[in-house]
Each structure stands twice: as structure tokens, then as C-alpha cells.
């Protein structure tokens, strides 16, 4: 590993640790019933910090046909992408355990997370394939699973978010747009990087991955948690009533 590559991995590590601290601190302002949001976002950053720490120390890197495959990255994504999707869906599908249609909402959750895990697992097999045909077959399967995730989010999940009482469709819409833009960069970067066509070098690939990982985890997490804490505060002051809120 070159110095430049190592530096970017340490930047990724430091950013994830700082992000975890910021999310943990801001999240303390959330109501008890909203605490699952900062908890999920906090663990996303902590898991990624672990993976970046390992990679910066040269761990979790496998040689395939002269290419370095950063397996630790996929282990990170395997756990953090479901948590990120869970964070988004907990905004769009409120009170999952309540109401007559809670089972269909839970099956939607299982479908999105199942497709997401399939996307990362097949992406890892693509990266580990020495043969081009095998590699691009895995890549195509992974892209199919990715489109299934996006299709479910823009279809049934968004429909429920718009129609459900107690949901926050505006916040769901903002988070969904941010997630879509950032997540689409991953398969493109993979294709341009050393796992795919090799159009860009390993250092550039590691640098861009660090920047989008920080945006998709720390940026997304901060946006979600700040907005949830804002909602918590408004609900609390409304429940307390204008006099109590003014004197609190
Ligand atoms: C791979 C390559 C194979 C095709 C596809 C991919 C998609 C990966 C995605 C990763 C998202 C990661 C995030 C991490 C944490 O912030 C595996 C690159 C479709 C969408 C959001």
C-alpha cells in the first residue's frame, strides 16, 4: 500500500470516529421513542471506523490476480447498508409494530434488506472473481438487487410514507433523494476502479470511496438525526403546552 492510499484510509477512519461522536452527542436530544435513530446512525459510523482502521493497517485485503481487493469494505457495507436502509424506513414506515397492516410493512422491510444484503454479497463475489465473465455476471446480479432496493423504496415504501398518519413524508423524501444520489456512485466507481475496468487508479478509487462513504454515513446520519431531534423538540414543547414550554 502506498502512503497516499494509507492516508486516505486514515482520513476515512478519523471522519467516521468524529461522525460517531457528533451523532452520539446530537442524538442525546432525541425523545426516548426516537432514540433508535441516533443509535442506528451511531453504529453505522462505528462499524465503518472499524473497517477503515483494519484497512489502514493493511488488514482485510486479498490479492486476486494481482489486484488488491479490500474485503473489509464489503464486510462494512454488509452491516452498514441494512442499518442505513432501516434508518430511512423507520422514518417512512412509522410504528412498524402497530396497526393491522404492520405485517405487510414488516415484509417490505425484510424485502428491502434482503435485496440489499444480496447486492453486497454478490458485489463481493464480483470483486473476488478472476475471470471477467464470472466477474461481470456477479456484477449484473448485484446491480439487479440494487435496482430492486431502489424500486421498493420509490414504490411501496414511498406510497406508505405519503399515506400514513404519523409519518414525516417530507423528511423521508429528502433522505431518499440524498441516499439515491450517493448510492448510485458506488457501482459506477466500482466499474471505473481496479475491480472493474481500471480506468482510475487505486489511490483515486480509495479517495473517492472515502469521501462518498463519509457522505453516505456521517452526512446522511447527521441530516437524519438533526431533523429527528428537531421533530422531538417540537413534539415535546407542543405536548407541554405553551405556558410550560415558555417557562421550561
Ligand atoms: C457494488 C458493486 C457491484 C454492483 C453494485 C454495488 C453497489 C454498492 C452499493 C454500496 C453502498 C454502500 C454504502 C456504504 C456506506 O455508506 C457492490 C459496489 C450495485 C450501493 C452506502
CATH architecture: Up-down Bundle
What is the percent of helical residues? over 70%
Task: Kindly report how far apart the N and C termini lie.
Answer: 56 Å
Overall morphology: globular
Give the neighbour order of strands across the main sheet: 1-2
Radius of gyration: 20 Å
Number of helical segments with 4 or more residues: 8
The CATH H-level homologous superfamily: Rhodopsin 7-helix transmembrane proteins
- Count of discrete domains: 1
Query: What series of H and E elements makes up the topology?
Result: HHEEHHHHHH
Stated plainly, the CATH topology is called: Rhopdopsin 7-helix transmembrane proteins
Q: What small molecules does this complex bind? A: retinal
Which CATH first-tier class would you pick?
Answer: Mainly Alpha
Topology:
Layout: H1 3-27, H2 36-56, E1 61-64, E2 67-70, H3 71-92, H4 102-128, H5 132-163, H6 169-192, H7 202-240, H8 242-247
Antiparallel strand pairs: 1-2
Bound molecules: retinal.
What keyword list fits this structure?
single chain; 248 residues; mainly alpha; Rhopdopsin 7-helix transmembrane proteins; 8 helices; 2 strands; globular; binds retinal
How is this structure best described in words?
- The protein is mainly alpha-helical.
- The protein has a single domain, classed as Rhopdopsin 7-helix transmembrane proteins (Up-down Bundle), CATH 1.20.1070.10.
- Helices cover 79% and strands 3% of the residues.
- It is built from eight helices and two strands.
- It has a two-stranded antiparallel sheet with strand order 1-2.
- A hairpin with a 2-residue loop joins strand 1 and strand 2.
- The mean pLDDT is 91.
- The structure holds retinal (RET).
- The site of retinal (RET) has 19 residues, from helix 3, helix 4, helix 5, helix 6 and helix 7.
